Amino acid sequence: MITTPGVTPPDADDEADPGPGTGAAGRVQAVRHHYAHRGDRATVRGRAYTVYLIALFALIYLVPVLYTASTSPPLLAVRTPTAAAPLTCALALAGCWGAQLTGRFWGPLVLQPFLLHVFMSTDMSPMSYLGTIARRRLAAAGTAVLLAAITAAYLTTDLFDRPSTALPGVAVAAGVSVLAAVAWLWGQVRAVRDNLLLASAAGGVALLVSALSLAVPDGEGGLWLVAGVSAAGAALLGRAAFRSIRTIDLARLARESARASQARTYAGTGTLHHALDLYRPEPRGLTSALIRPDGRLRGHLTQGAVRALRTRGRALAAVLLLLTGGAVLTRGVAGPEGGLSLSLWLAGAIAVYLGSGWVSETWRGLRDELTLAPLLGEWWGGTPARTLAWPLTAVATGAGLGGALALLLPWPLTGRPAAHAVLLAAGSVVLVLGARFLREMKLNLPLELLLPVVTPLGDLSGLRIVAWQFDGFVAVLIGVAVLNAVPSAPGAGALAVLIAAGCVWAGLRRTGWAHRGLLYRLRRV
């Protein structure tokens, strides 16, 4: 190639750029190619280290779990294909609802803000650059859900132990994975009303298919029916969802992409809780309800209830989680020791833990108030009752109502006595509240966690960071496992109080508090 002195020859990538007359696919490919070869892209060594971490995790954790599951009795014994059909319908329904909810916050069309800005600045239609991205991501999501569903079924059930249920089980997993992937796109591109209609229709179809599968003389036909209905529903939803890409609100998509980019930055720097805070709904309305007509603030419980009602979606989800978690938790502690009862106990505790965080925004206010104490003096601020009155009352009431409903329903209780079950349930709720306090007092990532932990298997400091990121879940899971190992219910209740007190103390230490200021403030409650 002949070059002129003083003129820089064009780069190979620039020569390959498509001109204005090139099709939309080529222009999209050119933009993605340039962005993929930017200066701050991931290096080969960085990708190799990621592969090393995944392989290390699989070698240390995944392989032993798979081996243990293959040599131990299943957690859920599905003796006949007829009994498996309602379970698979529930799995498909949960996958559809979960994918819709995920799409409302982080859908498959979320891009890097720079890429989206470049695409929006052109004369191309949204379908020309979002359609290809959606197909690629839906294929990846469907594959991931398929592998996760098959792995979970293999670890927890005996569907793959018999040839008569193995092939229908794989078909059901494939149908559920396709349905979940399409529902993920539907949740982002369609309005809230359409998502509610889909959720209601999915629930009705699941009930109908469950009833039909139980009435099928041949038990294997029920699983094939679930797989066929899931695949047909995915095909219908897919066509409607892809047609909706043409009319998507690009301004809303730009806001979602910017928020996702910021959340990704927070997660990459070790502050996942700050990333989750970005997805908290903004409070709306009822501002004047916090003040009495005479100008004074209302009581602690009233303020907490009003603040909860300002985010109605979170409040409704919290109520459902607390009631369901309380019922499942009570069923777990009232059943026989080990097996399914322990799983119900853990699931109920996790549900109550999630509901305790969504029931109020006053946890964040308490954290902000406590973090100012080292700056303004340990005697600064109001009493903890001002911020803790509502969440403690709401969690105790919601979990208590759910537990009472579980005890009053005519279900067989063949495990612990009712008094011991109530004591264990109360101790579990106290443990959950302590874990929630520990999580909400979290600030920035401590630098000491970044120090290497040298072992024969390599640096395992990442495990400490993961444990710190999900410390609330870790405290709940370990606490419930320890309580289950205690032989007496009073001893387990006392131990739950001690664990919760330790979580509270650790949370206060995170905010820089000392014991003298804490004792003084408790005297003012």
TrEMBL record:
<feature type="transmembrane region" description="Helical">
    <location>
        <begin position="315"/>
        <end position="334"/>
    </location>
</feature>
<feature type="transmembrane region" description="Helical">
    <location>
        <begin position="465"/>
        <end position="483"/>
    </location>
</feature>
<feature type="transmembrane region" description="Helical">
    <location>
        <begin position="49"/>
        <end position="69"/>
    </location>
</feature>
<feature type="transmembrane region" description="Helical">
    <location>
        <begin position="167"/>
        <end position="187"/>
    </location>
</feature>
<keyword id="KW-0472">Membrane</keyword>
<feature type="transmembrane region" description="Helical">
    <location>
        <begin position="489"/>
        <end position="508"/>
    </location>
</feature>
<feature type="transmembrane region" description="Helical">
    <location>
        <begin position="417"/>
        <end position="438"/>
    </location>
</feature>
<keyword id="KW-1133">Transmembrane helix</keyword>
<feature type="transmembrane region" description="Helical">
    <location>
        <begin position="138"/>
        <end position="155"/>
    </location>
</feature>
<keyword id="KW-0812">Transmembrane</keyword>
<feature type="transmembrane region" description="Helical">
    <location>
        <begin position="340"/>
        <end position="359"/>
    </location>
</feature>
<feature type="transmembrane region" description="Helical">
    <location>
        <begin position="196"/>
        <end position="216"/>
    </location>
</feature>
<feature type="transmembrane region" description="Helical">
    <location>
        <begin position="81"/>
        <end position="100"/>
    </location>
</feature>
<feature type="transmembrane region" description="Helical">
    <location>
        <begin position="222"/>
        <end position="242"/>
    </location>
</feature>
<feature type="region of interest" description="Disordered">
    <location>
        <begin position="1"/>
        <end position="24"/>
    </location>
</feature>
<protein>
    <submittedName>
        <fullName>Transmembrane pore</fullName>
    </submittedName>
</protein>
<feature type="transmembrane region" description="Helical">
    <location>
        <begin position="388"/>
        <end position="411"/>
    </location>
</feature>
